[in-house]
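Teaching note: in complex prediction, the entire set of molecules is handled at once rather than each chain in isolation. The prompt given to students was simply: 'Predict the structure of this complex.' The entities are:
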Amino acid sequence: YLSLLFLGWLTSPSAWHNKYPVAHGSRQSPIDIVPHQASRDPNLSQIVLNYDRCTSINISNNGHSVVVEFDDTDDRSVIQGGPLDNPYRLKQFHFHWGEKGCEGSEHTVSGNSYASELHLVHWNAVKYKTFDEAATAPDGLAVLGIFLDVRCFFKCLYCLSYDKTKYGFFPKCLLPSSLHYWTYLGSLTTPPLHESVIWIVLKDPITVSEKQVRSCQTWPLLDLYCPLLNNADRNKRIFVS
Ligand code: SG4
Ligand code: ZN
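The expected output is the structure of the full assembly:
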């Protein structure tokens, strides 16, 4: 019990600074976003997502989160515009879920949480040779954060299973209808906490059903992505560690 307690102390966010001094740095994420305190920047353009031909290469569940990785050897899937000087390549996406289901988002809006937060992680392949190199540079990563609200998500499920060739692996229906965003310079939200992330957080959430949130805590997103995988693929691509 004591060693568990010790492990808990070592791994809790409030103790990260012991091992990662940057936890006390000046651009740490996540943050509380207070909309009326954000200033409008007329130089910011719309963000553009080009995920049309993206192919996933691996889905894994580490017990806390599901991570879906993509082939990032070329610019087939990129985010550009907004605060970004050049296109950033999609590397993976993952979700953050709360223990109890309704307060799982990392960013908050005026102190309020959403059920979950989807993070699409991109890297600057124009300036850096590898993801790891980009992950330590101040303009190396761009993470698109999308809040998930709890409501009915079944429409989206149908959309997912509808046409793989048309939507690619990441269908547009997993995005809210408006791409209005908040942006700030921040960091990875977990160790090593590198201050390398240009955060782009969408103002509008997408919606999920309560049932989906419950099943996602045990087997995040498996339901959601099953229609896209044939049986052989499922065995090959999904593992639990
Ligand atoms: C989660 O722990 C993901 O599972 C990690 O993904 C991710 O690490 C980490 O969060 C930090 O990313 O967008 N929340 S965040 O700031 O993306 C990275 C993996 O470990 C480097 C694959
Ligand atoms: Zn994340």
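Point out the following to students. Residues 94, 96, 119, 189 surround zinc ion (ligand 2) (CB under 6 Å). Residues 152-169, 215-241 have pLDDT under 50 and may be disordered.
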